Amino acid sequence: MLASCQFVRKDKSTSIYFFLGVEMTSRRAFIGSSFLGFLGALVPGKSFGLVTAAKKTRVCKISSIPVSGGKIVKTTLGDLLVTQPRKNTFRAFSARCTHEGCTVGSGRAGANVVSGGVVTCNCHGAKFNANDGRAVSGPARSALKKYVVSKDKTYLYVS
Ligand code: FES
After folding, report:
1. Same domain flag for 147 and 69
2. Does 109 contact ligand 1 (Cβ within 6 A)?
3. Is residue 67 located within the same domain as residue 27?
4. Whose CA is nearest to atom 1 of ligand 1?
5. Which pairs count as long-range contacts for 95-102, CB under 8 Å and 24+ apart, including other chains?
6. Does residue 77's CB lie within 6 angstroms of at least one atom of ligand 1?
7. Within this chain, do residues 86 and 136 fall inside the same structural domain, yes or no?
8. Residue 11 gets which letter from DSSP?
9. Of 15, 28, 35, 81, which is the most exposed, with the fewest CB atoms less than 10 Å away?
10. What total of structural domains would you count in the chain?
11. Phi-psi category of residue 66: left, alpha or beta, with phi > 0 → left and psi -120 to 50 → alpha
């Protein structure tokens, strides 16, 4: 994502510079902010002044997630529940149950843990919707933490 930069010449003697809608008082401030924003767009996860690029974490191969199913995947972010509710539609949630913190789906990494569109926490029986993470059956009351999913030709990523 590139930052929005704008230069406005008010009259011959006065110039006003805008960076991300913020008025800059000088050409030097404008150029500096624009450069920092450009760096932020190039370097994921790094913040340069006003712009921060989202950090993406590789999760798993696309082909490893079954259609209408889902798996627990161990990542640097912790255990994630990754689902594919419809062909080529992927979701990712924290696998930590919102009741008392067990790993949903019995924590069985690699096995399909979604059945009938829901994943169950075997500690006390809470059920979560595999498409949106919402708790559909207690004792859990709140949804699983959701991640933004992106992909390339081979892998799924979350941010
Ligand atoms: S910890 Fe998951 S239902 Fe209690």
Report:
1. yes
2. no
3. no
4. 100
5. 95/144, 96/144, 96/145, 97/121, 97/123, 97/126, 97/140, 97/144, 98/126, 98/135, 98/140, 98/141, 98/142, 98/143, 98/144, 99/123, 99/124, 99/126, 99/138, 99/139, 99/140, 99/141, 100/124
6. no
7. yes
8. S
9. 28
10. 2
11. beta
Q: What is the CATH number for 70?
A: 2.102.10.10
Q: Check residue 156 and give its pLDDT.
A: 96
**Same domain membership, residue 91 and residue 32:** no
DSSP-assigned beta bridge partners for residue 85: none
18-62 confidence digits (pLDDT tens): 444 444 445 555 455 554 444 445 555 454 444 556 789 999 999
Question: Residue 126 CA: which ligand 1 atom is closest?
Answer: 3
Q: Which domain holds residue 152?
A: 57-158
**Has this prediction a pTM greater than 0.85?**
no
Q: What length does the chain have?
A: 159
- 38 and 88 belong to one structural domain: no
- Token look-up 């594919």 returns 84
Residues 87 and 22 in one domain: no
Give backbone dihedrals phi and psi of 15, rounded to 5 degrees, phi first. Answer: -120, 140
